[in-house]
Amino acid sequence: MAALQVAAVVAFYMCSALIMVFVNKAVLISAPDVPLIFLLLQLLIAVVLLHLSALVSRGAIEIPKLDLHIAKKLFPVVSVNIIGLVFNTLCLRGVDASFFQIARGLVLPLTILVSSAHTHSVPSWNVIVASAIVTGGFLLGVAPSSKVPLTAAPSLLSLGYGVLSSLFIAFHAVLIKSSLPYCNNSTVQLAWWTNAGSAVLILPFVVVCGEPFALRAMMADPHWDATVFLWGTAVTGFFGFLLCIAGLLSIRVTSPITHMFSSAARSVLQTVIGVTYFGDLITANRATSIVVILGGTMFYTWIKTVETPPSPATDIESKGSEMVEDAEIVWQAPEGKD
Question: Which residues are in coiled coils (predicted)?
Fold first, then answer.
């Protein structure tokens, strides 16, 4: 029964993550001029689903009360989250779905760097080696290749979005622990504040960038099929909410190592589906890059499992969040939250 539970959770996590990446990409291809509106709708759907979950959970899920003092305390983590999500969305819009994981390949090294600077500590040599492996994989994947035509090569701007997305994910990982006490150490309450706050912060930029006018122009175009945008927004909003649960369940029910191997398997499937469905170009350099990044990431996860002794946690959500910081953030797309 335990093995079946683990398999079900891992499959749930992998399917949710895969659906998020590819439906996101399909929507951004269909409506490339309104990425911020797309992101805003996803955030609002997540907030609505959290409220519905609280209604049917009979107290198991608690929605926090609006408190200006707490909102000010959580402003850093919320603002970093939405900036990272914007860069994440812009990166996915500009690169192939299979190349997306390479473009965001610096999440682990930057997280280690930011965490070390924040705690004024020096990571172990093994951690530095893992970081160097992942960085090498990233450089290998983004290096110019004569086998990649100019039309298929990612732009420097898209790569810049990927690096900035990775950097803000790193800042977000550091801020999570300091933010949880303001949410009663509840990851669910922090998720509510993050999604609701991010929606409020991004709304003015949606207007300033003129995306409502762009969306109205697309709707007036008889050749534009709004089905992909509408259904894609609903699906990604729903599965983005599920992905929060899936990642946490994957850590709780399995182990960080098992979770990371499921992430690796998802990355391989993501590449295969990207090549098959979207016609993405996969070269030897890109394939090797993905393997090297995954290898360095799994090596890091193994190191942290060995170096960090298990400690008892009084709050299961708090325990889950600590493990997520070490393992899950590497490949979540805080896309969610990648």
Answer: none
pLDDT at 250 over 80: no
The full length of the chain comes to: 338
Q: CA-to-CA distance for 102 and 52, rounded, in angstroms?
A: 36
Q: How many other CB atoms are there within 10 angstroms of residue 306's CB atom?
A: 9
The DSSP secondary structure of 22-78, one letter per residue, reads HHHHHHHHH-TT-HHHHHHHHHHHHHHHHHHHHHHTTTSS-PPPP-HHHHHHHHHHH
Query: For the chain, what are the domain ranges?
Result: 12-330
pLDDT (0 to 100) of residue 34: 93
Split at pLDDT 50, 70, 90, the class of 313 is very low
CB 113 within 8 A of CB 128: no
Residue with tokens 């969305």: 89
* Interacting residues of 324 by C-beta distance below 8 A, sequence separation 6+: 247, 248, 251
CA distances from 32 to 7, 126, 131, 173 (A): 36, 42, 34, 29
Whether residue 301 contacts residue 308, with contact meaning beta carbons closer than 8 Å, is answered with: no
